[in-house]
Amino acid sequence: MPIMPIDNHREAMAMGLGALAVTAVAIVTASATGPAFSERLSQQAKAAIAQADAAPVRASFVSANGWPTRHALLSGGEHLSERTRARAARAVGAIPGVGGVHWADGTGFADGRKSSPRPVVCQEDVAGLLRARTIRFEEGSAKIDQASEALIDEVSDALRPCLGSIIAVTGHTDSSGPEPGNLALSRLRADSVRDALIARGIPADGLRTRGVGSRFPVEGLEPTDPANRRIEFSVIATEPVRPTPVDTPGPR
Amino acid sequence: MPIWMELTVLMLVAYAAGIALGWAIWGRAHTGRDADG
User: Is B2–A37 a contact, with Cβ atoms under 8 angstroms apart?
Assistant: First the structure.
């Protein structure tokens, strides 16, 4: 048994020397290939930025200590719109081998793997559709008017890019008639729009409905105006919910 | 993070994984024989 500690000591020494050798090989290899690799990324980034119409943006692949890195630091293009800057950052982030994209001025961060803010865009599309036309119902009923079916088709097409987000459908009425009845009717109308959207392939689990009766008339209209009978859509979640530290179970 | 640091971490992790795998395959059996003897 006294041999065992010596064996263990030798093994530990051998492993330590092995780790040192591995570190040395890594450093030598990185020194030999790193500059050429980051230079190639730099050229690809330049081309990608030019293709994204954001030519004033420059991508640097040098770390704070001056070492070559595969993490891009973007600078310049301050006068460009946020959308163009985000497009440039996404283009650079999409280059194979690029580890992450940061802005030097700290005003923004974009990663090639992040999706564009499509839900807001599709909410605008739906709002645009409903600006000129409204989903109509038969009087005193939650049945969608035949003439509005085509509009529902268009709305479901416009909502399709938002799949994965929560889409709120809110029913409104005018103030004629008793409010409890209006409330129930507005809820039923929102439900029938939800059912119509589900029938057109929008997943039910992303749709939320509520009826608010005549409490929120259109701005500038009398509460009794029939134009207050309407359905509104809003995208109420665009990002997956991340648990806060409080929600995350920790070790006890 | 510079490339040399990423490569070092990656290679050290691979080295440690190799050591662990080698120990799991040969080291454990070797230790067992010693204990028997």
Answer: no
